[in-house]
Design goal:
Helix 14 packs antiparallel against helix 15. By secondary structure, the chain is an alpha+beta fold. It has a seven-stranded mixed β-sheet, with helices on both faces. A six-stranded antiparallel β-sheet has the order 20-25-24-23-22-21, sandwiched between helices. A four-stranded antiparallel β-sheet has the order 6-7-5-8, sandwiched between helices. The two termini are 50 Å apart. Helices cover 51% and strands 19% of the residues.
């Protein structure tokens, strides 16, 4: 069998790379090479000859290594620069396919080969940079809580140590209390140093770690700014005539730590989705052991155990009802506020709430296999991974601190050497800004402006702009039954202009339903349906179930029936109230001596609509016909209409015949459809639609439509409850309704409005604030306060997504 031309071999690691899914592509000496990740591409570009030795490339076979994805918490990051530093270090490790570090979520998502580099090596690399690693959500949640307490404690102590200096300064300015200037300066320096080396030690340590790792972070800027301020106080103490910024050094650190605390609180609110999901599960379960009720911890449940669940209790884990009927609140899984009815044989989801009846449930999934565990894993990975729009912010962040350091140096040198030329500007500014002092010596002016530049610059706002919005959006989606496998799916969906729908099971219910009950003149409609239901009692045939469900909906009770015989491919014969009854095809009536002719005209319209027609006769006389068809879901037409309002073109692809497709399309309001397609023809159709519309999404059941879902820019799987096909798509709708598609589009668009707003304000702030600081117009205290507020503003703006109606 010839090799698949769409599959290539990464020349560096030997792994298979599918064209269109590659993370890197490069032309070298007339040939195109494909790479599974950017790390391999960089290695190849550095030493191509190393990987293209003829004997090696000839012998190399695809290495189907099994990679593992881990989500690890990281403590101690102060800004997006820290995340970039860790990410670069991890991506340099052998065996790491891709590593992405999210500053806002304080997490790293690493896809790696554990046989080449075990997790312990990843952890060592991170800790060597001066950061803390936490694996496991329970451990991480506790650690984050402790870290929040520590940040709060550092902030409180910073203000306690700063307060005496602020008090002496205020009393001095109000001429209430005077200390000798030398004593006053000494107190200010001692208190400032106490704040820097006490509550600020973590920042100081982070700065040294960053310099050691040859990277620059927010900690470096803050440490340099405060150290310079303290240094000016020391110079004053030695009798030099310079501006004493030492008196505000402690205050600068206190304001910085306050900003860090408020930022951490805001980030914590944006990451609440995971914690809420973790808290949903029950802690204990009651099971039957040798006929006796026993209470055990949920983590000791095994597949096959029988759980006893009373009204008002949480269902401990996924299972199947074996006894009892009830209604269940499944809102945590589906977002649906109304309870659903469940009976023996139905699947139930762990952490949902049993409302009305006592039920016995047999365990079908435990631990990582449960629906809730899969949702938590999915949300974790979606929040931790980066999206294309974040690449821009990352590039800016990587250069941000080095550039700011350069600008601070240029600012200081400029004011030192050109103070005389710039002094008229300061006299003008002093009229409006009282803290601008045009009488300062050149060294003081240089120090004043240089420190302001260091503490005003804020890479944090840029680093938080995208991930915080993404965290809130994916959390909100999970609570509404919309599961995003990655943030990239959100970004792509925002740009989609056409959505392709499968018909069966997506637009329609996927199973036959009773649509028409048409009696002959003089025959009672209810009697017609009652006789048909009587013959179908006990049958599991899809058409039989449709008739029985239709009778139940009409409130009809079937008559007793005897001598029932099912005839394969034709229908069913039996006795109802002592009379012979026949239900099925026209030929079955003819075979039983009954002319179907009176019913033929009635059947024409239903046959025209491609419905399945069942003829019914009783006592040798025809009674009427029943129509059965796969009908659209209740919300399909409304959802299609909403998508049109959003400017999206709905298109239906189906393997069904054109007449059936046309009938369904007309009923739900779809103008474009293609019928009679084989699976490979669906793929070709999607490719042509991409050329027409650009970005195209595909909605299907996640299993039968897997190839088409993968081919589309965004694959959306329709699922229900525990049967949801999470792995088959980019987005999974837990409820089997098309309204979820509309909600997903609205959420994607709202998310990217927030991301663009965040990036605008983060860039606008830095582009405005840094030049003002360079011009000497910002006091370091004002600069530091503005820096803290800029980060908080970005996170708070992201949190507004929680109020968006989708």
């Amino acid at each position: 069998m010839p090799p698949n031309p769409l599959i290539h071999i990464d020349p560096v690691c030997g792994m298979e790379v599918i064209e269109g899914k590659e993370k890197g592509k490069w032309e070298y000496k007339g040939r195109i090479y494909y790479f599974c990740n950017e790390n391999c591409l960089r290695r190849f570009q550095k030493e191509p000859g190393k990987y293209l030795q003829s004997e090696r490339i000839a012998a190399r076979k695809p290495t189907l290594r099994k990679t593992e994805t881990v989500v690890a918490g990281i403590g101690g990051m102060s800004c997006a620069g820290c995340a970039v530093t860790i990410e670069k270090a991890l991506n340099r490790l052998p065996g790491v396919k891709v590593a992405q570090v999210n500053f806002a979520a304080e997490e790293a998502v690493v896809e790696f080969d554990p046989e080449v580099t075990p997790f312990t090596e990843l952890a060592k690399t991170i800790t060597a940079l001066g950061y803390e690693v936490r694996k496991g959500k329970v451990e991480e949640t506790e650690a984050v809580s402790q870290e929040m307490q520590q940040v709060k404690l550092r902030m409180v102590w910073a203000w306690i140590l700063t307060a005496p200096g602020m008090l002496f300064m205020a009393l001095h300015l109000l001429e209430i209390f005077h200390l000798p200037m030398r004593v006053m300066t000494t107190i200010e320096i001692v208190l400032g140093a106490a704040v820097l080396f006490g509550p600020g030690w973590q920042t100081l340590k982070g700065a040294f770690g960053s310099i050691k790792a040859r990277s620059a972070t927010m900690d470096v800027l803050i440490t340099l700014g405060i150290t310079a301020a303290l240094f000016s106080g020391i110079l004053v103490l030695f009798g030099l005539e310079v501006e004493n910024l030492g008196r505000v050094a402690g205050m600068l650190m206190a304001i910085y730590l306050t900003g860090r605390y408020l930022e951490a609180r805001a980030k914590g609110r944006s990451a609440q989705a995971i914690r809420r999901l973790l808290s949903l599960g029950a802690r204990t379960a009651r099971i039957l052991v040798d006929g006796r009720e026993t209470e055990i911890p949920v983590n000791r449940l095994k597949v096959g155990d029988v759980m006893l669940i009373r009204p008002g209790e949480k269902i401990p884990t996924d299972g199947r009802i074996i006894e009892g009927e009830t209604t269940i609140d499944e809102s945590i899984a589906t977002g649906e506020s109304l309870p659903v009815e469940r009976k023996p044989g139905d699947e139930v989801i762990g952490a949902t709430i049993n409302q009305t009846g006592f039920i016995k449930v047999q365990v079908t999934r435990v631990g990582k296999e449960t629906f809730l565990a899969q949702v938590i894993r999915l949300v974790e990975e979606a929040q931790g991974r980066k999206i294309p729009i974040q690449a821009f912010a990352d590039r800016v962040t990587a250069w941000f601190v080095p550039v700011v350091l350069g600008l601070a140096l240029i600012t200081a040198l400029g004011w030192f050497f050109f103070a005389a030329n710039l002094r008229p500007f300061l006299f003008w500014a002093h009229q409006y800004l009282p803290w601008v002092n045009p009488e300062l010596l050149p060294f003081s002016l240089a120090l004043f402006a240089g420190v302001a530049v260091l503490v005003i610059a804020c890479p944090c706002a840029l680093g938080l702009a995208t991930p915080t919005a993404l965290m809130v959006a994916t959390g909100k989606g999970a609570e509404s039954g919309l599961l995003f496998r990655s943030g990239e799916a959100l970004q792509t969906l925002e740009a989609v202009r056409a959505i392709v729908f499968d018909k069966t099971g997506t637009i329609t219910r996927g199973k036959p339903a009773l649509t028409d009950v048409i009696p002959l003149p003089g025959v009672d409609r209810q009697k017609l349906l009652a006789v048909a239901a009587s013959l179908e009692q006990g049958s599991e045939h899809p058409l039989a179930r449709a008739i029985l469900e239709g009778a139940t909906a009409w409130g009809i009770t079937p008559f007793p029936a005897t001598e029932i015989t099912a005839i394969l491919g034709k229908g069913v014969v039996g006795k109802v109230e002592g009379e012979k009854a026949v239900l099925g095809k026209a030929e079955l009536l003819a075979e039983n001596g009954i002319s179907p002719e009176p019913l033929t005209l009635l059947a024409l319209q239903l046959q025209e609509e491609t419905k399945t027609v069942l003829y019914l006769a009783l006592g040798g006389k025809p009674l009427g016909i029943l129509g059965v068809a796969d009908t659209p879901k209740p919300d399909s037409a409304k959802a299609i209409g909403e998508l049109k309002k959003l400017g999206i073109v709905p298109i239906m692809l189906t393997g069904d015949n054109p007449k059936t497709a046309q009938a369904i399309a007309r009923e739900v309001g779809i103008e474009r459809f293609v019928a009679g397609l084989l699976p490979e023809e669906k793929l070709a159709t999607i490719e042509s639609l991409k050329k027409e519309f650009g970005r195209v999404a595909m909605v299907g059941d996640g299993i039968n439509d897997a190839p088409a879902l993968k081919s589309a820019d965004v694959g959306i799987a329709i699922g229900t409850g525990t049967d949801v096909a999470i792995a088959a798509s980019d987005i999974t709708l837990v409820r089997g309704e098309l309204s979820g598609v509309v909600s997903s589009v609205r959420l994607a668009r709202a998310t990217f409005r927030k991301i663009k707003e965040n990036l605008f304000w983060a860039l606008f702030y830095n582009l405005l604030a840094i030049p003002l600081a360079m011009l000497g117009l910002l006091h370091p205290i004002i600069a530091e306060t503005a820096m803290a507020l800029s980060s908080i503003n970005v996170v708070t703006n992201s949190l507004r997504l929680r109020r968006v109606r989708i």
